[in-house]
């Protein structure tokens, strides 16, 4: 009896899972040529962001790049799922970190890594460049599609890119080390001023 109930429960789970998958697939209509091209482009762009941040983390030792690279890996996975959902082959499949299927993206990767390797500030500027580009492209992707599934995923990636941009701009505006040094310098000047005032008071006596 228990075995029969288990089989029945398993059967119901499979039926529900199949129904959910079918409903998602049904909700995803066919993409036009522009939507397909954009999806493939965004897949490659998310890989670009991830790979550049991994390279800059290695060159600068900045751990924040690794944290954002981990987020970009999730974005890549989201794009992979969308490609699978719409039955589109992943053009980046089989390409190692730092390698891309299109010459333009490969050149952009090489240029960004070279620029970001100059200094910590330069690396953060590259982060600003990537996220600014990503935000513009995601907004364009959202505007050109009427697919609810793509719209939700692009919207989620857009919100994440905006957070990344804010983080990079904050670090670019006020590097923690420089701010700390400025604070110490200010404190030192204030202390010197107080010492001078005390000496003046003693001299007056």
Describe the structure.
This protein has 205 residues and is mostly helical. The N and C termini lie far apart (103 Å). Helices cover 83% and strands 0% of the residues.
% residues in beta strands: under 5%
**Helix and strand succession?**
HHHHHHH
**Uncertain stretches:** 1-26, 180-205
**Count of separate DSSP helical elements:** 7
User: How many DSSP-defined strands?
Assistant: 0
Helix content: over 70%
Q: Class by helix and strand content?
A: mainly alpha
The whole-number mean of residue pLDDT values reads 81
* Estimated radius of gyration: 26 Å
Biggest β-sheet, characterized?
none
Shape: globular
Distance between the termini: 103 Å
Topology:
Blueprint: H1 2-27, H2 33-60, H3 63-85, H4 103-116, H5 120-144, H6 148-173, H7 176-204
Helix pairs in contact: 2-3, 2-4, 2-5, 3-6, 4-5, 5-6
List keywords for this structure.
single chain, 205 residues, mainly alpha, 0% strand, disordered N terminus
In short:
The chain is an all-alpha fold and 205 residues long. The chain has seven helices and no strands. It starts with a helix and ends with a helix.
